[in-house]
Write a structure and sequence with these properties.
Elements lengths: L3 E2 L9 H9 L22 H15 L5 E6 L2 H13 L10 E6 L2 H13 L1 E7 L20 E4 L1 E2 L4 E2 L11 E4 L16 E5 L10 E6 L16 H6 L9 H17 L2 H21 L3 E2 L11 E6 L4 H17 L2 E2 L10 E4 L6 H15 L1
Parallel strand pairs: 1-13, 3-4, 3-5, 5-8, 8-9
Antiparallel strand pairs: 2-10, 6-7, 9-10, 11-12, 12-14
Helix pairs in contact: 1-6, 2-6, 3-4, 7-9
Bound molecules: pyridoxal-5'-phosphate.
Length: 364
């Protein structure tokens, strides 16, 4: 019997995707081999990567002047690749100006990496209130790019509107919200996401980049860290994460069959509303996030208990008893504590209802 997995990532995958992958494990498409065993340059693998890319372009409405890349190194490597490609100087060291908005722990990490290769300006931060809101975005000036984290996985906030940065390219980390709601790709210069939240298994990173931002970077930037290297070779400069790309393709087929991103968004809003409504009415639990900025994907909650020792004991008990009822991975991030339910696209409404029934029982 399967669990309801509320993990922030790697996270649950749709059952039909896992079943299909299982059925094709020994013989994919009559090739007599698993996708894991195929040469990435073979005629058997080519249609797989092409299908994954065309489905992603179709479902996200990616305009034709953008490239879609399948890379490795996680979203974390993009924290370095973005400044290296858009802001690096002729010699290693701090290059051009880059704007960042600090809205959580992933944004902090992006800022730390960018500071090695760019002259970083943190234009706004919500650290003063433990990242429980999204700050007003100051306008861009002459920066090489402007970086935001669209959905903040750990603290459970999301940008309620996309900032207008004029001619400065807007770059967004969409690791934990890709395909959760419609997004106007044309407003961005670069979008990037590690696959392990909404798209597939860990190991593949999707980068969507406007073509004019794929430039010749300074010579000292390693080949593997340059967008021009990967874009020029159709993500095949070296061996891509083949099996991950195949599973992403199956997940995208599943999204399309459900009705596409609009349908997924409707389901996500329903799921999130059930949980937030329960939290807002509960006497034991509450959401620490400002309503306007609540994430649809990651929903942290804490108990109203004031005594620290009792609070920890209660929350530990909650996570343990939930797991005994097959509701797993509900502990909050180690840096923020409390609880968190990540309800990505693959989490069913039944899973959310099961969690709420358990919370009602626990509260009693
Ligand atoms: C998970 C996550 C990351 C880190 O992703 P890796 O693929 O582990 O590098 C970065 N940013 C956000 C918003 C995330 O949710």
């Amino acid at each position: 019997m399967r669990v309801y997995n509320f993990s922030p990532g790697p996270s649950a995958l749709p059952v039909p995707v896992l079943e299909r992958a299982a059925s094709e494990m020994l013989d994919a498409n009559g090739t007599g081999q698993s996708v894991m065993e195929m040469s990435h340059r073979s005629k058997d693998f080519k249609p797989i990567i092409e299908k994954t890319e065309s489905l992603l372009r179709e479902l996200m409405g990616i305009p034709s002047n953008y490239k879609t890349l399948f890379l490795q190194g996680g979203a974390s490597l993009q924290f370095s690749m973005i400044p290296l490609n858009l802001a690096a100087g002729d010699l290693p060291g701090k290059g051009k100006k880059a704007a960042y908005i600090e809205t959580g722990i992933w944004a902090e990490k992006a800022i730390k990496e960018a500071s090695k290769y760019a002259t970083v300006e943190v234009k706004a931060s919500s650290k003063d209130k433990a990242y429980t809101y999204i700050p007003e975005a100051p306008s861009a000036s002459d920066e090489a790019y402007y970086h935001i984290t669209l959905n903040n996985t750990i603290v459970g906030t999301k940008w309620d509107k996309i900032p207008n940065t004029g001619s400065v390219p807007l770059v967004a980390d969409i690791s934990s919200c890709i395909l959760s709601e419609p997004l106007d790709v044309s407003k961005f210069g670069i979008l990037y996401a590690g696959a392990q939240k909404n798209l597939g298994p860990a190991g593949t990173t999707v980068v969507i980049i406007r073509e004019d931002l794929i430039r010749k970077t300074p010579d000292w930037v390693p080949s593997m860290l340059r967008y021009d290297t990967h874009a020029g070779e159709g993500s095949m400069y070296n061996t891509p994460p083949c099996y991950g790309i195949y599973i992403i393709g199956l997940v995208l087929e599943w999204v399309k069959k459900l009705g596409g991103v609009d349908t997924i968004a409707k389901l996500n809003r329903e799921k999130a509303a059930l949980l937030y409504n329960y939290l807002d009415a509960s006497k034991m639990f509450y959401s620490p996030v400002e309503k306007q900025f609540r994430s649809l994907m990651n929903i942290p909650f804490v108990t109203a208990e004031q005594d620290d020792a009792k609070k920890t004991e209660l929350e530990t008990r909650f996570v343990k008893e939930a797991a005994a009822e097959r509701l797993i991975n509900l502990a909050g991030h180690r840096l923020v504590g409390g609880m968190r339910a990540s309800i990505y696209n693959a989490m069913s409404i039944d899973g959310v209802k099961a969690l709420i029934s358990f919370m009602e029982k626990f509260e009693k």
